[in-house]
Amino acid sequence: MERHPASASSRQELGRLLEAVLTSRGQANAVFDILAVLQSEEPEEIEEGVRTCSRLFGTLLEREELFVGSLPSEDTALAGSQGATYKYKVWIRHRYHSCCNRLEELLAHPTFQVKELALKTLMKFVQLEGAKPLEKPQWESHYLFPRTLFRAVVGGLLTPEDDHSLLISHFCEYLEYDDIRYHTMQVATSIMARATSQQPEVSLTLWNNAFTLLSAVSLPLQECELTNFYVKHAQTSDKWKVVHLKEHKKAFQEMWLGFLKHKLPLSLYKKVLVAMHDSILPHLAQPTLMIDFLTSACDVGGAISLLALNGLFILIHKHNLEYPDFYQKLYGLLDPSIFHVKYRARFFHLADLFLSSSHLPAYLVAAFAKRLARLALTAPPEALLMVLPLICNLLRRHPACRVMVHHPQGPELDADPYDPTEKDPARSRALESCLWELQTLQQHYHPEVSKAASVINQVLSVPEVSIAPLLELTAYEIFEQDLKKKMPESVPLEFIPAKGLLGRQDDLCTQFFCLS
Q1: Hey, is 123 helix, strand or coil?
Q2: What letter does residue 279 receive in the DSSP assignment?
Q3: Model pTM?
Q4: Is 284 within a domain?
């Protein structure tokens, strides 16, 4: 829709009204005319009205002309016997509340420029109201923050009706401030708790808005003094929770645990789990509290189970969590479809990481090597060029498994003792089997696959082969590589030199025609 700037006359009129209110309290009723512009149907007029309100109430807050304390009702204050100054301050603060309420409504305006300007104005009021509090401190050095106004701002972002992802991305600029980040975590936790308690089924829009905001919150990794405040204070106190990283971690943990205790849509499960290992777990006060969420995610299956295993692996590796079924869950994810899903590269990267320890029992590693070898029989070439080096790496890390290559009975076993239907790798009898599948793949139609499978015939080198460059390999890239290969100038097609088209008879015919 084409936008037209507000007319010069309307800007001049708003400027005149603003000047009148700021210069004389006798002209205070002009505030109603300014607030009326916020109800306009034209986005350009609304924007001009928001800018005027920003200058008006910003100035009044700095002048401390608003009533401070528990705000009485407007009718009670005006009917009372207090002086004119008292009545004016109560009255103008009610007008300030009316302005803030309308700005909160404008966060849902269909025009993004209006929403963005309303957000910036509200955050300006948060800063000014924090510097010049509208409530009285209960004791000396009492930490004051405009929680009511700030809660309304965050509540306007976390709505079930409108997708506010773009507006939230603009709000995230304020999260670099320690106090804004701390209060955002607290407010988001309470808003989500109230929304889920009031509605039996929460809309996907609200979940997405909440995740967009929560995932933007990041804490310092090391203990440090938190003094980068959006709301300026003359001096800080060590008694304030907002200055301690430990309190931020507690708020961060409550925020995520409150969010994850609900049944999330599958699309959000993936987003949360992708961010879990590097954006959530390192900042939790007690990372092991995520065990319930991760174990339930493991039972979902597919990509969600894989990503959940990544989080569990971190808890096992760094926080001494005991989870005996970890490798059984990973083993269960190995099926023929794993070579054809879009998260194949991530899966094998993580599988390589999970199996990297040299302290794993031989029977477990043998089960994974055998399962991968069996799946390789029907895998596409681009997957084989990644899986075969991975199998060889497993044998390099665990020499006890090399018996599967040099088995006494070799591929001449009457029947393969390995049970591919067994879910428990400990009972699969993989160590009693051999990797005959690799010998079969040495006859593969693609020369690179055949070459990779033939590595097993030689003594395995000590350094492992990195599979990182092969994780994203595609069939198109293999085809392009084949096209770029330089072929010899003359390609031998027959090892016995040809003597004429039809052999000796052809020679005789040639002589006959020559003589004739």
Answers
A1: helix
A2: I
A3: 0.79
A4: no
Longest dimension (CA), the chain: 142
14 inside domain: yes
Whose CA is closest to 447, among 478, 473, 486? 478
Rounded Cα distance between 247 and 251, Å, is: 6
Q: Are residues 256 and 396 in the same domain?
A: no
Handedness of CA 409, 410, 415, 421 (dihedral sign): positive
Three-state DSSP class for residue 255: helix
pLDDT tens-digit series, residues 399-436: 888 888 876 655 555 688 999 999 999 999 998 898 99
Lowest mean pLDDT among 266-275, 366-375, 498-507: 498-507
pLDDT in tens, 167-184: 999 999 999 999 999 999
- pLDDT, tens only, 49-79: 999 999 999 999 999 999 888 888 888 878 7
Question: Residues 154, 81: one domain?
Answer: no
Nearby residues of 457 by Cβ (< 8 Å), 6 or more positions away:
442
pLDDT at 412: 56
The torsion region of residue 512 among left (phi > 0), alpha (psi -120 to 50) and beta comes to: alpha
Distance CA 164, CA 350 (A): 34
Q: Which domain holds residue 479?
A: 324-407+416-489
Burial of 218 from C-beta contacts in 10 A (0-12 / 13-18 / 19+): middle
In-domain check, residue 108: yes
Which residue is it, tokens 């040495």?
Answer: 442
Q: Look at the block and give the residue holding tokens 């608003």.
A: 66
Tell me the percentage of the chain whose pLDDT exceeds 70.
91
Q: Which of 263, 293, 313 is the last residue of a domain?
A: 263
**Residue in 10, 90, 98, 8 with CA at minimum distance from that of residue 53:** 98
- Pair 157, 208: CB distance under 8 Å: no
Do 115 and 26 sit in the same domain of this protein?
yes
The last residue of one of the domains, among 234, 263, 292, is: 263
104 and 148 share a domain? no
- Mean pLDDT across 357-367: 91
Q: Which two tokens stand for residue 488?
A: 């010899």
| Cα(255)–Cα(464) distance, integer angstroms | 42
